[in-house]
User: Fold this.
Amino acid sequence: MTSPSAVIEVSNRLNSLEKENTDLKQKVGELTALLAKLEIRVKDLEKGNKSVGLQAVTPNSTVASQAVAKAAHAGSQASANVKTAGSQAKSQPAKQDDDDDGVDLFASESEEEDEEANKIKEQRLAEYAAKKSKKPALIAKSSIILDVKPWDDETDMKEMEKRVRQIEADGLLWGASKLVPLAYGIHKLQINCVVEDDKISIDWLQETIEEIEDYVQSVDIAAFNKI
Assistant:
């Protein structure tokens, strides 16, 4: 597109040249009228055989003719300038359009929009990753009920439970317990515990309890549930 300043400049030049052309045409008209009068006078003098008057008028006629010729030339030059300026005014937008052909304004806007969309996407991914990292990881746990059996009815069940609860490990939490009758006055210790699957092995827990040989005969799993 043509810049506003270029359009104003060309318009001003055209107006100036048109004014000069009008003034020159007016002067040419005046000189033409004067020349016509001089020619009439010369003819009158020739008819009256007034050679002196003819000699006096002829130089003036020549001067007038030269002035008319100069004025006509100037007018032609002004007209040519007006045409040239008009041609420049017409060709300048075309040139500007040619320059604009190499610039894809919509492509620039599209690139900016794509860049902005990528920034928003990256920001959202970063926020999601940060939120996910703050969320505690799910820990797999199991709830287990153990049946701990004594040797006989003379086994101190309270002491046996105390020894069992003394087993401590990371990921092991003891819960409620009770005595369940078996037969012949013998009771078993039924005790609940919660373990983290990645930290506590059920086999290890059973073997560790069975190592309390003075009180424990065997250990069985009464119930096993994933939490």
Remarks:
- The radius of gyration is 60 Å.
- Residues 50-61, 93-100 have pLDDT under 50 and may be disordered.
- The first strand starts at residue 141 and ends at 149.
- Strands lie at 141-149, 172-181, 187-196, 218-226.
